[in-house]
């Protein structure tokens, strides 16, 4: 059996090498090798206009069993891309993978992203500087090239499991909405749902985005942890949705609380006033409150964690000074 697996991996590796060579020839300088040994790449994509309005960076990890049995692991970096639109684009990439399972898929993915950018550029909703749409001043970036953050990409490798379960027999888990926190006109509201499969994570996000108010939030940060009893391990992931490092902090909170089979989403509506590190405090406080309210964390743990987080915020402020 081991010899068969090795043969398959060799065939996959050869397919990857040929695909990467082809993409490099097609896209030239737009194609970047981040870490060849780890099979990490990225490609800069823009619309087809003479003066591109929209840009995105598609970061890719090729697992050993791609393309035969596993999809590429990906992350889309685009400061203007938010909640429902990000979900729509991700779903289109996943649909492409399902339609072409077992085949090399990267070229189709790149062109699908480009098609999405062109449609967005030509839509009536496009503004003169779409990269700045719905950004907080804290998160504004220049209009230059996105710098690949492959450390974050590695964190999100578990998202590959989202491709693997396309059953239609699962119901949307019940979603609880927690109390909002408002500070200097910015509002933070948590949402919680029990989840036991990655498919349910997607369903919860899709259901939340049906709410126009939630869909219009400046950021919808989320994290989840699912305990896999057969492997005695956790399937976990997070998303910043433009609020850099917020998703990782939220996942860290879930890990400290040792919660399982739950996802938390925190919506933030930016009020126009900079909050600095306080925004992270509000995001985690919201999440912690709803976890306690729904019985996922004890109040005594909540108090000790509060002291820990206060120390973190103080340390950060000292560094910023």
From TrEMBL:
CDD domains: RWD_IMPACT. Its main location: cytoplasm. Residues 18-120 form the RWD domain. One of its GO terms (cellular component) is cytoplasm. InterPro entries: Impact (IPR023582), Impact_N (IPR001498), Impact_N_sf (IPR036956), Ribosomal_Su5_D2-typ_SF (IPR020568), RWD_dom (IPR006575), UBQ-conjugating_enzyme/RWD (IPR016135), UPF0029_Impact_CS (IPR020569). GO terms for biological process: GCN2-mediated signaling; regulation of translational initiation. Keywords: Cytoplasm, Repressor, Stress response, Translation regulation. It is found in: Cytoplasm. Belongs to the IMPACT family. Interacts with GCN1; prevents the interaction of GCN1 with EIF2AK4/GCN2 and inhibits EIF2AK4/GCN2 kinase activity. Interaction with RPL39; this interaction occurs in a GCN1-independent manner. Associates with ribosomes; this interaction occurs in a GCN1-independent manner. Associates with actin; this interaction occurs in a GCN1-independent manner. This is Impact RWD domain protein. It comes from Sphaeramia orbicularis (orbiculate cardinalfish).
